[in-house]
Design brief:
With 263 residues, the protein is an alpha/beta fold. It has one domain: TIM Barrel (Alpha-Beta Barrel), CATH 3.20.20.70. It is 43% helix and 11% strand. It has 11 helices and 7 strands. Helix 1 runs parallel beside helix 11. The chain starts with a helix and ends with a helix.
Length: 263
């Protein structure tokens, strides 16, 4: 929840300018819903794709305050984030003022994530499905159980054609907006485990084409080390994406790593 329409448009234009020579790296930006139209227009004709931060699974109806897949397609979205930990009410920095009753406003769960992903795919949007464990779950060594469980429920019954239409993001909740980061080799192990889950559920061919991202306090200093890991295909950037210069450095790191892999 950052940036007014004008601020988002200005950032998008700066990002477009700094990445005008972009090639071989896919980039998407996901501004708040109020800025989707303006940012989409600012990026039109560039190689930077537009994405949304959430959607509802119905096309239209008496669902005040929600946004449908048709609306996202109408403003030019290609991607949509689904099941981000904050939408599930799971925060890296817990807000003590959020009582259990207040937390219900963040209502996503495994079932809604699955329903939203299904709707996104049905309307030609690429879902970026987020999964991840809390600090308590990590300390109790429940990471693999929690992450694999969320992932299986999120993709259950989805009609996947090639795998290229689906993106998964591993975002340890305890690393989001905290400055902490999962040790890259450990993040690589977890994403490798996730790839095996995808293979078991969707088959080896499709699983091999699904991109798995890492998200959680990614910045220009650690991005290259993260993307050097063999099982990690990219990053889901939070606070560092609010400044075009910082985000461009991260994109450059992705391009560097891609070149090294190809060699």
């Amino acid at each position: 929840m950052n940036k007014t329409v004008g601020e988002a448009e200005e950032t998008a234009k700066a990002l477009r300018e700094q990445l005008q020579a972009l090639s071989d790296v896919e980039v998407a930006v996901c501004p708040p819903a109020t800025a989707l139209d303006a940012v989409g227009k600012a990026l039109k004709g560039s190689e930077i794709a537009l994405g949304a931060q959430d959607l509802f699974w119905e096309e239209k109806g008496a669902y005040t305050g929600l946004i449908s897949p048709l609306m996202l397609k109408d403003v030019g979205c290609k991607y949509v984030i689904i099941g981000h930990s904050e939408r599930r009410g799971r925060f890296g920095k817990p807000d003590p003022s959020l009582t259990p009753e207040l937390k219900t406003v963040f209502g996503d769960n495994d079932s809604t994530v699955n329903r939203k992903a299904e709707a996104a795919l049905a309307h030609g949007l690429r879902p970026i499905i987020c999964v991840g464990e809390t600090l308590q779950e990590w300390e109790e060594k429940k990471t693999d159980t929690v992450v694999s469980g969320q992932l299986k429920k999120a993709i259950a019954g989805l009609e996947i054609e090639t795998g290229e239409e689906l993106v998964i993001a591993y975002e340890p909740v305890w690393a989001i907006n905290t400055g902490k980061i999962c040790d890259p080799p450990e993040a690589n192990r977890i994403t490798g485990m996730m790839r095996q889950v995808l293979q078991d559920c969707l088959g080896e061919e499709a699983a091999g084409k699904i991109r798995i991202l890492y998200g959680g306090s990614v910045d220009p200093q650690n991005a290259e080390k993260i993307m050097r890991q063999s099982e990690i295909d990219g990053v889901l950037v939070g606070g560092a994406s609010l400044q075009a210069e910082k985000f461009s450095v991260i994109v450059s790191a992705a391009k560097t790593q891609k070149g090294e892999w190809e060699q």
